[in-house]
Amino acid sequence: MRKSILFLSFLFLQACQVGNDFSSDFPLSDDEIRKNLELSNHSETISPDWYKIFKDDVLNTLIQSALSDNLNLKQAIQRLQQSRYSYLINSTTTLPQISASGEYEFSKASNNQDYAYDINAFKIGLDASWELDIWGKGKYISEQYFEIMHNAQYTLENLKVSITAEIVTNYVNLREAQEKLNITQQNLYLQKQILNTVISQYKSGIVDDLTLNQAEYTVEMTKTSIPNLKYQIETYKNALAILLGCTPNALPVNLDDYKKNLVASAFYFDAKRLNQLPLSVIRSRPDILAAEATLKQQNAAINEAITNLYPSISLTATFGFISSSGHSLFDKDSQIYGYTPGFTLPIWNWKQLSNNVELQKSINEEYILNYNEVILTALTEIKNAISGVKQTYEANRSYKLSVTKMRNILKLSQTKYNNGLISFTDVTTAEQNLLNAQLNLIANNAEILQNITAFYKAVGGGYNFN
Description:
- With about 475 residues, the chain is α+β, with helices and mostly antiparallel strands.
- It contains nine helices and four strands.
- A four-stranded antiparallel β-sheet has the order 1-2-3-4, with no helix packed on it.
- Helix 4 (about 70-90) packs antiparallel against helix 5, helix 7 (about 285-305) runs antiparallel to helix 8 and helix 8 packs antiparallel against helix 9.
- The two termini are about 45 Å apart.
């Protein structure tokens, strides 16, 4: 009988709960996602270790170190832990609260005071209070903190995606600057050799001042780009150190020591991967899941505001012992107890409570708009990344061809100059054009890697795929 009463009471309390369950209309249909991203029938799961496709051990070490030591990540982990504790604290607000107290009181009364008496009392007891969660207020408070915890989890994962992409970006920039410096120094070495030949010819009267000055000018102009490249290399090293949460001298790898530069040649990437994505590619991005958690939190906030329109019912109770002697404190005659049921009904509050409901609904509408914007932004980022990868590969063919052609032009120019058919200006121009073509090719090789990185970041970096 008692179990039946408890069960019926539970059903009654559930039936009394007010508010609406969460529902969210995803602004993009599966068909729209499939058409916009040109998804193939075959889909592959993306791993959080996607960066290992570059097969660069130094890069792998940097990313693993960053994922364990990055200071922003450590802060996000602490925020997640804080949100868990907040959830544990606020998920118990509707449970009965019991506290124990004890005290001893002694007071000597004045002999010159009427009706005065001495006090010598031992007190010990339990106090209990409970606000019945009839309308679901406690449940909705718990839901809010539960979604705050989820938001912190998704934010942490999104930060991992961003930090991984930042490491790759800065590493590729570093390697690009190092390779450009290498090419520039090689060209400078050749230009100095040519200058030495021109100086010998000048001393022999074979060439004039114009030729000598042109050769010297070419050498000095090439030299001007070297300090800036060295500055860039130092800057990217420092940026990587910050991402790893250490000083530049404490980096776990020697960034100047490498067998093959990652950007020395174009990285091969199977373009079919760009369209082999699951339909959940957008919905399951960490930042979108975080935005959805915010929507769920706000829906619970609306429901909590609605419960404040209804009466609250509470119960307090006291049980304990009071005695003037410690020996008789726990005797039956020393017992005291009492209970106080009560309720509070809002009657007139100048529409504060109803306006708060409307306020929470307005905030919810703002969050819905933000949620839709984040989703559309995600779709655009993926489309841009796919296009970026394809177009940089398309341009790479032309950059390679331009280097080949400029090498031929330089050889022909040197032959013609030696035969007296053209001026030395044509040779120096060909030298400078070859250097620019080589640097442009390296920049394009790096851009390919950057766009591949942007693609993996745009699809969520391998986190939270359903």
